[in-house]
Structure to design on (315 residues):
């Protein structure tokens, strides 16, 4: 499996979107089988195919005044926000060489994120019908004795997922909230069409986390998962 | 006449929602053109046209749910396409 890594750093969403499409073409032409694009974005709101205009709580003018661009894009899911405090991972993978199963792929992304969180002692959770990774606010750590995760009453979202697949090649992907300062802009939208409370690694751990420090770990987890057809 | 059928999308996936038709009824399509976009869970995916011809009938509109194996549309194959067979 010829799998390539692209680390774009802090980049405008539109440029990274274009870059994904270029990589997609190369993979479609079989130049290589898959890629993982890692980056951070300047503040931006992206509107997925399942979004409605009511999911954006402020006017376009206000977004413009705040320096936030907005793009309607071809991924699944609703509205979301991206900013410099998130690690974005766009896996562009040819599922023809892996496993042609859309939900399986989404679950693999969740598993990866849950593994990443567990390295920080955080217990990532999944809820049926709510793609993404969540934590239980009242007991976010793996070693918490009390577990109310079954009830899901106190859930906060830490990882958002939304993908597009064309000819069984994936693009778009997942965003992991890392920095605590970057969560305020989520109040401008209804993420995924719901009244969701967002959280981040820093908010849970109460210490600084550098995005660069978790990139290699995420790459390793992707590499391991690429054997998933076995 | 070629039926455009919603194929298997993975284990446990029983249906998907039509999100966008790239062509209208009566329009000419080429084999492998993106014909329709559908969504399931947090994913969108495309269905390429299985042949060249005219998109003669669409059975599911944008927003409609389609079960796996159901016929989404009919394409009347072009004559040259039939002759090539």
């Amino acid at each position: 499996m010829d799998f390539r890594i692209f680390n774009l750093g802090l980049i405008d969403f539109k440029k990274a979107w274009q870059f994904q499409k270029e990589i997609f073409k190369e993979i479609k032409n079989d130049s290589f089988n898959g890629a993982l694009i890692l980056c951070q974005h300047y503040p931006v709101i992206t509107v997925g195919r399942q979004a409605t205009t009511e999911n954006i709580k402020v006017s376009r003018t206000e977004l413009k005044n705040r320096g936030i661009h907005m793009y309607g894009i071809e991924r699944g899911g609703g509205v979301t926000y991206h900013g410099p405090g998130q690690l974005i991972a766009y896996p562009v993978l040819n599922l023809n060489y892996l496993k042609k199963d859309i939900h399986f792929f989404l679950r693999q992304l969740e598993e990866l994120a849950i593994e990443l969180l567990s390295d920080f002692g955080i217990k990532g959770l999944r809820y049926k019908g709510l793609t993404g990774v969540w934590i239980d606010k009242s007991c976010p750590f793996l070693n918490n004795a009390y577990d109310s995760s079954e009830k899901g009453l106190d859930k906060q979202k830490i990882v958002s997922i939304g993908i597009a697949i064309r000819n069984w090649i994936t693009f778009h992907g997942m965003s992991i909230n890392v920095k605590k300062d970057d969560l305020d802009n989520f109040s401008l939208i209804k993420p995924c069409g719901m009244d969701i409370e967002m959280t981040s690694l820093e908010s849970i751990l109460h210490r600084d986390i550098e995005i660069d420090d978790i990139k290699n770990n995420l790459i390793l987890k992707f590499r391991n998962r690429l054997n998933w057809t076995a | 006449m070629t039926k455009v059928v919603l194929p298997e999308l993975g284990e446990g996936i029983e249906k998907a929602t039509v999100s966008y038709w790239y062509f209208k009824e009566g329009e000419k399509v080429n084999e492998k053109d993106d014909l329709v976009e559908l969504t399931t869970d947090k994913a969108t995916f495309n269905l390429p046209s299985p042949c060249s011809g005219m998109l003669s009938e669409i059975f599911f509109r944008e927003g409609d749910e389609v079960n796996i194996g159901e016929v989404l549309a009919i394409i009347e194959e072009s004559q040259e396409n039939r002759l090539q067979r």
In short: The first helix of chain A runs from residue 13 to 28. Chain A touches chain B at residues 48-50, 74-77, 100-106, 131-132, 161-167 (CB under 8 Å).
